[in-house]
Amino acid sequence: MKAFVVDKYKKKGALRLADVPEPELRDDDVLVRVHATAVNLLDSKVRDGEFKLILPYRPPFILGHDVAGMVVRVGPKVRRFKAGDEVYARPRDHRIGTFAEFIAMNETDVALKPKNISMEEAAAIPLVGLTAWQALVEVGKLKPGQKVFIQAGSGGVGTFAIQLAKHLGATVATTTSTKNVELVKSLGADVVIDYKTQDFEKALTGYDLVLHSQDTRTLEKSLRVLRPGGLLISISGPPDPAFANELKLNLFLKLVMRVLSHGARKKAKSLGVRFLFLFMRAHGQQLSEIASLIESGLIRPVVDKSYPFEKTADALAYVETGRAKGKVVIRVEE
């Protein structure tokens, strides 16, 4: 099969289109013909080697974290899927590789694709949908009437998280650039901060939850918009000791993460608020619940651009500019 591979960890390194063997099918795997995939900043960070201490992949490896496609074969222990099923997924860490014609995934990572959207739209959902779900529902336990600040509202996670937060009954504030103000309002944002002309720290106060996806300076400002006892969930770092324990990392890496997150945790404590780092994980059941929301018309995917498979490197370069509105998808099976 054809796939885009990373030959070595390198910042802005090139992806190579290669002929590679079809993935082996384990007993509890489904083999999926990839119809569409999507690009995430996580892909460039993995390629650059930013996560190789905690997520080591041995080059050459296939990149890609989102998939929508059709099941072509199932392992002998698979009970939830059959050949011909249209599915979508974010494969688990250490088994990524959606920039390819086929991928094998554990059935628990997979869900039936929402019936009312295309393969390309479905491919735009898994990673950002699971990130938003795990932040707002699972960890943040967002309740009706609460106030949530979602940074970068026009980005991949932001466009999904705004809609999910509104469905949960929250008041939603977000930041975006001038040209995307109407987009985030159309998704349900109640308070829109144009970061080019406004300072969100001066405009927001008493928030229950912050979904943080920006840099360290923005993190410190964000902690100050929380009410006492409020929670900031960061998806952009720094990783904290709880995350190190969850991954069962060695003592050295646990120490590194304790040091990296010390400033954020100390600042949060001094303000009487909480800081948590979230690195989303594969979860087929949560994707099934997300599919129900999409089929009910409560959430819609936001797709900026669609590229043919051979232009995968161009799609990745575009995402790295930080200008994408929603998601950038790749058509693998035309």
Structure summary:
The chain is an alpha/beta fold.
Summed up, the helix count is 12
Rg, alpha carbons: 19 Å
Name of the CATH architecture of the largest domain: Alpha-Beta Complex
- How helical, in percent, are the residues? 25-40%
Number of strands: 16
Structural class: alpha/beta
Instruction: Examine the coordinates and then state which fold CATH places here, giving the name of the CATH topology of the largest domain.
Output: Quinone Oxidoreductase, Chain A, domain 1
State the shape: globular
Distance between the termini: 15 Å
The largest sheet is:
7 strands, mixed
CATH superfamily of the largest domain: Medium-chain alcohol dehydrogenases, catalytic domain
- CATH class descriptor of the largest domain: Alpha Beta
Overall average residue pLDDT: 97
Low-confidence stretches: none
DSSP strand content: 25-35%
Domain Enoyl reductase (ER): 13-330
Protein name: NADPH:quinone oxidoreductase
Pfam family, one: ADH_N
GO molecular function: oxidoreductase activity
Question: In words, what does this structure look like?
Answer:
The protein has 334 residues and is an alpha/beta fold. The protein has two domains: 2-125 and 301-331, Quinone Oxidoreductase, Chain A, domain 1 (Alpha-Beta Complex), CATH 3.90.180.10; 127-277, Rossmann fold (3-Layer(aba) Sandwich), CATH 3.40.50. The chain is 31% helix and 26% strand. It has helices at 41-48, 119-123, 126-139, 156-167, 181-187, 200-203, 216-223, 241-246, 251-260, 262-271, 284-295, 312-320; strands at 2-6, 16-19, 29-39, 61-62, 67-74, 86-89, 102-106, 110-112, 147-150, 171-176, 191-194, 207-212, 226-234, 274-277, 303-308, 327-331. The strands form three sheets. Strands 3, 5, 6, 7, 8, 15 and 16 form a seven-stranded mixed sheet that branches. A six-stranded parallel sheet has the order 11-10-9-12-13-14, with helices on both faces. It has a three-stranded antiparallel sheet with strand order 2-1-4, with no helix packed on it. Strand 15, helix 12 and strand 16 form a beta-alpha-beta unit. Helix 3 (126-139) crosses helix 4 and helix 7 runs parallel beside helix 10. It is globular and about 55 Å long. The relative contact order is 0.16. The model has no long low-confidence stretch (mean pLDDT 97). InterPro entries: ADH-like_N, ER, GroES-like_sf, NAD(P)-bd_dom_sf, YIM1/Zinc_Alcohol_DH_Fams. It comes from Bradyrhizobium valentinum. This is NADPH:quinone oxidoreductase. One of its GO terms (molecular function) is oxidoreductase activity. Pfam families: ADH_N, ADH_zinc_N_2.
